[in-house]
Amino acid sequence: MPALPSFPIGDLPVMWLRDNCPCPECRDPRSGQKLFQIGSLPAGLRVGSTAAADTAGDPAVEVVWAPNGHRSVYPLAWLDAHRPGQMGRRDRRTEAGKELWTARDLSARLPAADWTDYLERPAVRARMLESVVRLGFMVLRGVPLREQQVLAVAETFGHVRETNYGKLFDVRVEPDPNNLAFTSSAITPHTDNPYRDPVPTLQLLHCLVNDADGGDSGLVDGFAAAALLRREDPEAFEVLTRTPVPFVFRDAGTELRAERPLIGTDPLGRVREVRFNNRSIGTLRLPADALESFYAAYRTFAEVLLREELRLDLRLVPGDCLVFDNTRLLHARTAFAQDGARHLQGCYADLDGLESTLAVLRRADTLEPLAELFAGAGSTEYLGEPVSMGRHMLQAGALAQAAGAPPHLVAAALLHDVGHVEEDVVTGRELMAGTDNRHSHTGADLLGRWFGPEVTEPVRLHVAAKRYLCAVEPGYHDRLSEASKYTLQVQGGVMTPAQAAAFAALPGAADAVAVRRWDEEAKDPDAGTPPFEHFLPLLTALLRG
Fold first, then answer.
1. pTM for the complete prediction?
2. Beta-carbon count within 10 A of 109 CB
3. Is the dihedral of CA 312, 316, 320, 325 positive or negative?
4. Beta strand residue intervals within 202-253, DSSP E
5. How far apart are CA 97 and CA 116, in angstroms?
6. In 477-508, where does DSSP find H-type helix?
7. What gap in Å lies between CA 321 and CA 119, rounded to an integer?
8. Which of 40, 361, 431, 463 has the highest Cβ tally under 10 A?
9. Using one digit for the tens of pLDDT, what is the confidence trace for 208-258?
10. Residues 6+ apart with CB under 8 A from 266
11. What residues contact 299, with CB distance under 8 A and at least 6 apart?
């Protein structure tokens, strides 16, 4: 009998541990659904004894429960990845599970893909669907110019939500429009159908013709705008999260109503939904003082949403299909000349279907591309440092593991520089040539194929963490290698006090700082490093789903 693995389970909540028993008596082997009720567990439940075990060759711990003798076997990798108190899977519908952005943030990395690649390559499709979840949108290029093709796009990840507009709607000038969208007028940033309960969570727009002068599209990250409002005017933010707003739509055959705040939050106060459409707001019937507070906050938020730096402008060309989160992104349009042809077809769908498709794609995915990256392009030079790119990352992962870091941080340290290496090309050479390749963002986007924000966000922030540490920690800059000092300037230089304060307030800042420190240490040509395979059990336990 092997020795009991040194994994303390005495500090784990008893009911939580028992509720997660993976045995076939407790979970259906096919569906994974639980076969017992929480109330059916015996009173006085406690751990009777523990022993070493294994599952398919991986170390595990067996727990015998008192008073009924039920046996549970927990893989250590699972326990390590799910230990209470660690940063686990967040509610992906809230701001905590998103990457908030301004137009500048996406200027060099628009989430776009060719339609054929999207259809034929599961990794491309997963990357694009992940972009909708994380950034709020994707653009598919070269979608066939056929009527109703937008429905086929929706069916690649979910189901079409039929509304009073039908399964699809035409966005073009109509002779007798029941909606401003069906005119040539400019439309300010808004979300669609706020008068519905539930609101369609996804919208698709497929460009068939766009020869008109004007008619450019625009997107605004409503979650980023709400976060700005919360920071700049917390009182206004609070008013907009607690004031129900009547949204109304009516025409000859339809009357729809819903009362919801402009900014919806979850029980923890995190932004989960934005409903903003000035055309559809009905008459509020509140006390006079409450109306005064609401309209002041409403106006302030409207002004934030119109800030030029928040709006990402796009000109859709024939064959482009824009898919976006209608509970987060506001979309807009410039006016266009009526004598120019402009025709988009649209439909609605829902995020739960898209997330389901994404999860199924990930089930079939493996970590083999990462292993190949370390064996291939990762063996090349590392930006003027005395170690290769792959060796540097392996050292960083080993340092994190030796420091007793939780699994998600070990993974972030191990994978922090994958954005420098893509398909056997060392993109980091651009950085050494004086162009910021934004490898932290590219790497985080790539890793989102397999991992959640607990891994991707420290990677996304690790460059900013260097700029931050240089600003707040005396002597940190002097300890950087010459190559790192050079890239610091290319990447934006030392943070200002205001930038440092804003960085420190980010949810993943502390983890990013930890990764940054291991990053700087992991440049020893004489240090032994474990192979990539050493980290596979840890990485596998962290995989989404």
1. 0.76
2. 14
3. positive
4. 202-210, 217-221, 245-251
5. 29
6. 482-490, 497-504
7. 14
8. 463
9. 998 877 778 999 999 999 999 999 999 999 999 999 999 999 999 999 999
10. 91, 94, 272
11. none
